[in-house]
Structure formats: C-alpha cells, structure tokens
Amino acid sequence: MKKDFWLERWERAEIGFHQDEFNPYLRHYWPDLLLARDSMVFVPLCGKSRDMLWLRERGCPVLGVELSAIAAQAFFKENSYTPRRLTSGKFESYDADRIRILCGDFFDLTKADLVSVGAVYDRASMIALPPEMRERYVRHLVSILPPATQILLITVDYPQPEMEGPPFSVTAGEVEALYREHAEVRLLEQTDVLAQSPRFQQRGLSRLRESIFLLKLRRAE
Question: What is the 8-class DSSP label of residue 192?
C-alpha cells in the first residue's frame, strides 16, 4: 500500500476509520499496563485520534507518528491548540501540551525518536496495513522500541475475501506469529461486533470480531 493512498484519503476527507469517542477498550484495559505516571506513550499512524487526549489526561505524554500533515494539523486545531512546529530529522514536528506528532513515514523512525517510550497504543496501525507490509511493520517497531515496552493492540478479524481493506483482517494467530519471537502475547478479549457495526454490514461482512492484546517486549539479554 503506497503512501499516496493515505494522503489522498485525508485530502478527500474519507476517514471513516476515525473515532470521535474515546475507545472503550483503551479505557477498560489501559490500567492493566500498570504504567508509571509520566511514561511516554507512542501512537503509530495516529491520525487525529482523540485517544491521545485521553492518554495525556491519564498523565502520559504522547508521541504520535502520522503520514498526513492534514491529520496532524486537524488534531491540534480541533482541540484548540496552537502547536509549536519545527523540523526534526525527516519529520515535521507538531507539539502542544505534552502531545507531539511527528509528521512523516513510520519506517523513518529510529531508536532515538522512541528512547523515552514506555508503552504503545495501536488501534489503527496494524489493521491499516496489507499482509505483505505487516511483518515489516512489526520488525521495525520492535527494533526501535526500548526493551520491555508494553503494547496495547486492537485488531479486527473478518473473512478477508468479503471486503477489501483497510481495515484489514488480522487474526489472533497472525498476531501470535508476528510477535512471539519478540514479546509475550496475551489475548485479553475477543468480541463479535458485527451487530453494532452497520457500516460493515452494508459492506457485506458475515462476521466481524475485535481482538484486544497486551504484548510485552522481552528484555535485552
């Protein structure tokens, strides 16, 4: 999937993936991470997610990465912030009230960018990527995160032939296969949500399940 796909989605305001409300799984399961206050949270492919506000309100500074400048600018404007803007390596950085968004390519991030991160919140990143990109995504993510970082991961699982992603179907088995060499993988919940998802019913899905995982990267040996 090319960068232009997502840039054009934001330019055309085709952002059905955006949620106006705080994610209920985030609110329910975030305490399970037992993070120290002031632990930085990384949000990959963050868009203009309001979940970043929820995390900041819990005392966590937030670092997001987002390809589209439209999305990054909209987040701050819609939440009445005037961010500081500067160039940081290959990224344009927007920063206000302990929320910083790096505008650029996720795969250009380095360990230095994420050195202070204690946890990752991935609601919309892995499911945004087609199968051929997900292994590369996980490999890069774990290579730049500090050891023992925790990841709260939310995926959707449906019969992939019934709908063209994104969001793409990611099974629990695939999550286990992608992360087991790097992390402890704990499945917290699986819930059938098709009945509450008319948009996906209209797209012809016969099944739609959301899965929530808590991953903990292994410590460096």
Answer: E
90 vs 78: CA distance, rounded Å: 25
If phi over 0 gives left and psi between -120 and 50 gives alpha, with beta otherwise, what is residue 109?
Answer: beta
The end-to-end CA distance of the chain, in Å, is 35
For the stretch 102-136, pLDDT in tens is 999 999 999 999 999 999 999 999 999 999 999 99
- Sheet of 117-122, strand order: 84-88, 91-96, 99-103, 62-66, 40-44, 117-122, 150-157, 209-217, 183-192
* Neighbour-count burial of 209, counting CB atoms closer than 10 A to its CB (0-12 exposed, 13-18 middle, 19+ buried): middle
CA separation for the pair 16, 11 (Å, rounded)? 13
- The structural domains of the chain, ordered by start, are 3-14+23-33+41-217 (3.40.50.150)
